[in-house]
Amino acid sequence: MIKLEPRGQHSKLMAWLSPVLAGVLTLVSGAILFGLLGQDPLVALHTLLVKPISDTYGLAELCVKAAPILLCAIGLAVVYRAKVWNIGAEGQLLMGGLVGSACALALIDIEAAWVLPAVLLAGMAGGLLWAALAAWLKTAFNANEILTTIMLNYIALNLLIWSVHGPLKDPDGYNFPESAMFSDSAILPTLIDGTRIHLGMVFALFAVVVVWVLLSRSFLGFQIKVLGLDASAARLAGFREKRLVWISLLISGALAGLAGVGEVAGPIGQLVPSISPGYGYAAIIVAFLGRLHPVGILLATLLMALIYMGGEMAQIDLGLPVALTGLFQGMLLFYLLACDVLINFRIRIPALSAGKAVPATAPVNQETAL
Amino acid sequence: MDIDLLSNILYAMVRTGTPLLLVALGELVCEKSGVLNLGQEGMLLMGAVIGFVVALLSGSVFLGFLLAIAAGVLMSLLFGVIALGLNANQVATGLALTIFGTGLSAFIGSEFVGKPIQGLEPIALPLLSDIPLLGRMLFHQDLIVYLSFALFAAVFWFFRSSRPGLVVKAVGENPHAANAIGLPVMRTRYLAVMFGGAMAGLAGGYLSLAYTPLWVENMSAGRGWIALALVVFASWKVERVLLGAWLFGLASILHLVFQGLGFGVSPNLMATLPYAATIVVLVLLSRNQVRARLLAPMSLGKPFHAQS
């Protein structure tokens, strides 16, 4: 019989070991799964995790996939620090892509250097407004942000589909549900010739640094952290709770919007019905896996982007369904939650330690697991 | 509006509301015991894919439903082990269950997308189905719709007049007091979570075997989340869950109503209606913080440690 015993304090070591452990468990489960599917587990794991990034093009593609995930996840780090559960990065990303596309299509005949900044700002505004809706619903009406942001995701998706079938459809596009291709002045420049890596990755890395400074060096970041750790303490200190909810949601919305517009003005180059294979949801896993810390999130993003690429590679090379990506994402999050138990509890096997005194237990803060 | 159109609308309203009713009833029982399981969408999808694949391979829709329920229960057990057994945060665990269920269902169903299957047919009850207006709505439906009526009545009775219903409520309101008088808190919560899983699995089977007899990735389209909002809408009262489910069913088929009346509105815009309605409902019911807190089970979402 195995028993869980409170550690009495939060284990810093386990907080960082747990994501690694979750990753290892996911790999082991993956290998077993491949074995059951009749694949050689080692070959399959190699195809999934090594082959996609074994050349320069692959590494560049990794950055192409990482950019939107990183932008969404770094924004989520800010809101989640405030314990505001924004599940709406996906919808905010889609609205960023939609509004940015509307702007790019309106300026399609103009060739000027200001077109691209205008498109990017429009995209950020789109994501920001979508998050503002959730902030308004939460602060003015006390509506649960988990449910409202998920509903807003579905609304954003339907608005996007409506616009590519209606107002933004390419008039010369043979009735396909797609917009016209953007003009060159609305397209993000690529960083390396022959690859698709674009300026979006630079924005994402810049956002990581800004959020790091914000969270660890600014009074605003301090207020956000206090609000998340203990809302009543924040109120007692005179911090304005609603203002912090607004600011953190707007930051995360704007970054997700930038991720969306970066996709349409980057690798895609037009508005299509499916601009995101769930980057906004993957970012939730990344934010937890990275312990809401900018560096952790950067590492977790690279892993997540690799899983996306690996899923595609496994489909091409091994004939496995591309949905493998979603399965691995789900397993990763589940194992993380299970391993996080070890932050506050240690495993004790009474049969082995019979006779030893049980250490005194102190109250354990449940919330620290997130 | 002629009576045939109205009768058809009512019929479609109940059909569309049935999966919402099933999931919401299951989640209601779960939340009454103090457990918030946000994984409904994931369990729904797993029920849908397992039900479909089993029915397609075995040729038995009945077996499909049976294993859809089993899949829902297994998924809910996964939630139970982590959220109840390991005391993990219920919100995060539920979210993980949804993400995992979405991924796993897409993986299992990838080879079965778009394959046709003979779905469940409506059964007209003699005489009753001839009642004007309500006959088609209530008495010319398929078996699962009738089962949803029965399950609604059963859950209503369970909380109104049964002792186990009282135990569930006691555990949800104050687990420590319930534990002190010797009620099995953990066992009650596990059973409530598993009931929620069974209902979500059944609802998933209904989607892929009766409502639209086919499998498409993510075919539940947020119904699990809408059902969660429905429980809030119902203020944790069983009778209001039925009303809410059918109202949301109506909101989901309004585009058909508009088409019937000759208005041309984009179906994609109309598709946003149930989601927008969910937000409106949440706003109306959460505005008053004190009232919202009084209605919810007191220990909802809080982990329980037995103090020995």
Tell me what the structure shows.
The complex is a heterodimer of chains A (370) and B (308). Chain A has 370 residues and is mainly alpha-helical. Chain A contains 13 helices and two strands; from the N terminus they run βαααααααααααααβ. Chain A has helices at 12-36, 41-49, 56-81, 89-106, 115-141, 145-165, 200-217, 219-229, 231-236, 241-268, 279-289, 294-318, 324-344, and strands at 3-6, 345-348. Chain A has a two-stranded antiparallel ribbon. Chain A is globular. The model of chain A is unreliable at 356-370 (pLDDT under 50). Chain B contains 15 helices and two strands. By secondary structure, chain B is mostly helical. Chain B has a two-stranded antiparallel sheet with strand order 1-2. Chain B has one domain: Orthogonal Bundle (ABC transporter involved in vitamin B12 uptake, BtuC). At the A-B interface, α6, α11 and α13 of A face α4, α10 and α14 of B.
**Proportion of strand residues of chain A:** under 5%
Largest interface by Cβ-Cβ < 8 Å: A-B, 48 and 47 residues
Give the C-alpha Rg of chain B: 19 Å
Major sheet description of chain B: 2 strands, antiparallel
Question: How many separate helices of chain A?
Answer: 13
The share of residues in helices of chain B is over 70%
Mean pLDDT of chain B: 87
State the distance separating the first and last CA atoms of chain B.
Answer: 66 Å
Strand share of the residues of chain B?
A: under 5%
Uncertain residue segments of chain A: 356-370
Widest sheet, order of strands of chain A:
1-2
Overall residue-averaged pLDDT value of chain A: 87
Helix content of chain A: 55-70%
Radius of gyration computed on alpha carbons of chain A? 22 Å
Q: Note the gap between the termini of chain A.
A: 28 Å
Oligomer: heterodimer
Low-confidence runs of at least 5 consecutive residues of chain B:
none
What form of chain A results from the Cα inertia axes? globular
Task: Assign the CATH architecture of chain B.
Answer: Orthogonal Bundle
CATH topology-level fold name of chain B:
ABC transporter involved in vitamin B12 uptake, BtuC
Please describe the biggest sheet of chain A, giving its number of strands, its sense, and whether it closes into a barrel. Answer: 2 strands, antiparallel
